[in-house]
Amino acid sequence: MAFEQVKFYQTGTFTVGNRLLEPELRSVQADTTRTNSLNSGHRACQGCGEALGARYAIDAAMEATDNQLIAVNATGCLEVFSTPYPETSWQIPWIHSLFGNAAAVATGVAAAMRAKGRETTRVVAQGGDGGTTDIGFGCLSGMFERNDDVLYICYDNGGYMNTGVQRSSATPPAARTATTPAMGPEPGNVFGQGKNLPEIAMAHGIPYVATATVADLRDLEAKVRRAMQIRGARYMHILVPCPLGWGHASADTIRIARLAKETGTFPVFEAECGEVTSRLPIRKRLPVEDYLKPQKRFAHLFGPEPATATLARLQALADRNIRKYALLEET
Amino acid sequence: MLKQIEGSRAVAEAVALCRPEVICAYPISPQTHIVEALGEMCRTGALPGCEFINVESEFAAMSVAIGASAAGARSYTATASQGLLFMAEAVFNASGLGLPIVMTVANRAIGAPINIWNDHSDSMSMRDCGWIQLFAETNQEALDLHIQAFRLAEELSLPVMVCMDGFILTHAVERVDMPSLEQVRAFLPPYVPRQVLDPAEPVSIGAMVGPEAFMEVRYLAHAKQIQALGLIPEFAADFRKTFGRDSGGLVRAYRCDDAETIVVALGSVVGTIQDVVDEMREGGVKIGVLAIKSFRPFPLVEVREILQHARRVVVLEKTLAVGIGGVMSMNVRMALTQVALKGYTVIAGLGGRPITKASLHRLFADAHADRLEHLTFLDLDRKVVERVLDRERETRRSGPIAENILRDLGVVAARI
């Protein structure tokens, strides 16, 4: 990782000692002059992981590009809660066109910048997992394949939260959504379905792919910074817990995101040209139950008779991630 | 400069003279030669400073054009048929966002059954999408309209579709007068967007609008089209001054002054109708033809002024509004509110069926004698249709209609 290792205030905690660092090594969010790209006053739910992730990522991108940034947004929660006309929370040039075309619109903006010789102005496209892994997938794959100079950021909250929590191809197995109810012999989302978009992005051979969570701010910022140092198609997949859709306490957004990483459920890594180049190791390995239990979307697994077989399958998926990405090894 | 070239090539060269900055290309017949030629010009440097992007679908083509236009670049694409339908969501979006994109539609039928030949079903399906729709009669007019289209689009901040008949125009090699870059520059000022994505002046574009303002937003889109009713003839007149020829405008009336029967039509078929009108005039029949050049906005006043003195109007259209009849007929009827004259709708040339002078002669003679049904299908093979209907009455599982018809017809190629 290309940033200074931080100290923690106390052994065993996750409280980052930003103030122990030299000012220039502190996070963008700790900087009083940060852009606040997504300004306060928007209408996101309390504890919204996507609002947090978007501000972290876009502020970092603004810093990395000397504020020469244009953002393209897919339809979805982020778009709806940030721009209820005539208000807008965006402090940067921003356009929303449709649900499924953010990557292509961003290609167009980047092409315009090239045609006008203004290549110092960079382009970020962003969307939720529905707008990325499902309806926007064709345009996204096209943008990757052409290696257009766009950073695409997917804020993954594992479902269509804006329309009332329906399943997407990023919804994890066993999760309850409005279209995968916790009913029948196999309650919740089906095993063996869904897309692993970071790996699909890597398979395009694009110069940079990274995953991150809102629990690791400095890691997320460093990855955005790295992404903006590179030209061509780049992809970031940020896990953003959704208190509404996941059924966890609003105050637990960061904790849940951290548990996704610490259980191996969500591997945090980066890859260049299709090869994994770094991963964020698990600090203290935890069983998947620790991640699942605080979320109501998995409540059906923890009834009077716990769904041990299902839990074992979910644990096996996490174990596979840990093996595959070597998440227990120190870097 | 006079050139003997294919319609597609002529359009491509005219577009290149307008110096677009971003072109998105996705192949679909019969439009493909246009973007092929533009791609070549971008490679050779004949069209300098232009980004040529090979996209993965028509939906992406229009989306890339939206991004490029919103970022201040003059943007162009071309499509047809299924392609136009596939990009439909983005087509509406482009006009809603007020982005002056210019797009050629090489008019082609819509499947199923799949058919690559010409009719107007594609652009007619998008008639209410908020774009200006101009129809070309000839290759010369097609290339001229593109130059006017960029000016019109950028003046109003509204996208413009230039519709030209697939194959009949796009693939026909004809003589055209290609203007010079200096002429085009004199006519078409540089693109100055009304609003642009720029870090120096951040704006949010494409916000959510609720019931409190949506009606007003839509009304203003309509008001812009009404403004276009004034600008289209103005720019056509200005075009005449610069280039020395008539192209475009709202409508063009041919021998309508004393006509008892007026045929209304769109696109390349107007030329054939004109020939038939001339021949019938020689026989003393008072007939004329009114070409609609701008389908959106629809020139209600001009159409009414020309038609109201006739006894009957025959709207000949290459689209079928299934379940009611004609699309353009409804628009013409709107222009004729409270005008009492006989009206006939003729559906012709669907899926590339030739519209011949012989058929038109019979048709117009019947119309002139008021022997025509109100809804007529020109050169429809009644026997084949009856056979299918009979079969379906006998057995519900009679098979797919298209395949059954082809089986009845035998070797189809022998009939074309």
Strand line-up across the major sheet of chain A: 2-1-3-4-6-5-7-8
Radius of gyration of chain A: 19 Å
Overall pLDDT metric of chain B: 96
How many independent structural domains of chain B? 3
Q: State the CATH architecture of the largest domain in chain B.
A: 3-Layer(aba) Sandwich
Element-by-element helix/strand order of chain A = HEHEHEHHEHEHEHHEEHH
Low-confidence segments of chain B, given as residue ranges, are: none
Number of helices of chain A: 11
Task: Describe the strand arrangement of the main beta sheet of chain B, using strand numbers.
Answer: 3-2-4-5-7-6-13
Looking at CATH, the homologous superfamily of chain A is Thiamin diphosphate (ThDP)-binding fold, Pyr/PP domains
- Strand tally of chain A is 8
Task: Tell me the layout of helices and strands.
The complex is a heterodimer of chains A (331) and B (416).
Chain A (H helix, E strand, L loop, with lengths): L48 H16 L4 E5 L3 H6 L11 E3 L5 H14 L6 E7 H6 L2 H10 L4 E6 L40 H7 L4 E6 L3 H13 L4 E6 L3 H5 L5 H10 L6 E4 L2 E5 L8 H5 L15 H17 L7
Chain B lengths: L1 E5 H11 L4 E4 L6 H13 L6 E4 L3 H13 L4 E5 L1 H6 L1 H9 L5 E6 L13 H5 L6 E4 L3 H18 L3 E6 L7 E5 L3 H7 L16 E2 L8 H30 L7 E4 L6 E6 L2 H14 L4 E6 L1 E3 L3 H8 L4 E6 L10 H8 L6 E6 L9 H12 L6 E3 L4 H13 L6 H9 L7
Parallel strand pairs in B: 2-3, 2-4, 4-5, 5-7, 6-7, 11-12, 11-14, 14-15, 15-16
Antiparallel strand pairs in B: 1-8, 6-13, 10-12
Helix pairs in contact in B: 1-2, 1-7, 3-5, 7-9, 8-9, 11-12, 14-15
